[in-house]
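hey can u check if this looks right to u? its 231 residues, i copy pasted from the old doc so theres a chance i mangled smth
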Amino acid sequence: MTDKIIAQKDYESSLMIRHAANAKRISLKIDATIRRGVLVLPPNISEQEGLEFAKKNKKWLNEQIARLPPLVPFHDGVSIPFRGKQLIVRHGGTTRGLVAFERDQLIVFGRQEHFQRRLTDWLKDQARCEIGRLVTDKSLTIGYKAGRISIRDQKGRWGSCASNGNLAFSWRLIMAPDFVLDYVVAHEVAHLAEHNHSRAFWNIVRALTNHTDRGRIWLKHEGLQLHRYGK
């Protein structure tokens, strides 16, 4: 499967062309995570044919993109979720290197032009700390040692486990309720023992967390909202 992004004046956003060897027909869908239309092409269909198909459906495509919830940039006064609770973020002045809680507010210090980066870095640090703690606890429980832990801005998945035991997680999980983060970490740690989604795998997940079903349901219905923040 290969992806290619093209800019088209007919569309509200760039269109991603995806060549999929197992696709049976042309399809057009919206990927709300990347806020783009995705044109899926089977092997026997050219890009030109695909673009003609997309052009015929541009009204539907543009309407769907327009219906996506608005982005929420990080700025003074913005409300963001943190561990499932809404916080108002305020700029606290030019003192460097400090982010502090004050009741239901998060105060970000530093130069105004660095506000977004500083807040993003702080959220990543919080994610790294909490995820690291959970990985350590859960991997000890099943007797497997995790490799390197990476905190990324993954679009297609919330976490991943490589064959060498390295784990990767989306920093945006720190905005979700704690039970969601607990479930995702349990899911990836379970892959250290079972690199599949067999019954044995799910038995391990359920042994590592009490929030398997609740976490999966929350991510299915609410997870995309986390990608709105900090653009």
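The radius of gyration is 20 Å.
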